[in-house]
Amino acid sequence: MADALHVNDNEFDQKVLKASGAVLVDFWAEWCGPCRQVAPILDEIAGSMGGKVTIAKVNIDKNPETPQKYGVRGIPTLIIFKNGQPVATKVGALPKTKLMEWIESVVA
To answer: Which residue in 23, 32, 41, 42 is the catalytic one?
Structure first.
């Protein structure tokens, strides 16, 4: 079972942009209620869709450079990267079914 990666500003290029396959990055913060709501769903997806997409988490309070670079203004912001480029973005918490449909539509 795959776990979500916790990525900091220094590791972002290596673990996300240079990753093979799709990477869903969750920009979050500990004080964010909707972020805490979506976290267990992303952990489940990391386990069930581990072959299709990697889940990475970036704490915006501890790593301010990366969210600024990608224009993150509200959290949770979910960005799917493919081949080092952002290809899809969702802002806000989504139910598991909607989140999985979105991921499937982007990474399929």
So the answer is: 32
Assign 3-class secondary structure to 22-77.
EEEEEEECCCCHHHHHHHHHHHHHHHHCCCCEEEEEEECCCCCHHHHHCCCCCCCE
The angle, 0 to 180 degrees and rounded to 10, between the axes of the packed helices 33-48 and 96-107 is: 50
Distance CA 65, CA 34 (A): 22
In the annotation, is 32 catalytic?
Answer: yes
pTM: 0.95
Q: Is 47 an annotated catalytic residue?
A: no
pLDDT of residue 2: 63
Q: Among the options 22, 35, 38, 53, which is catalytic?
A: 35
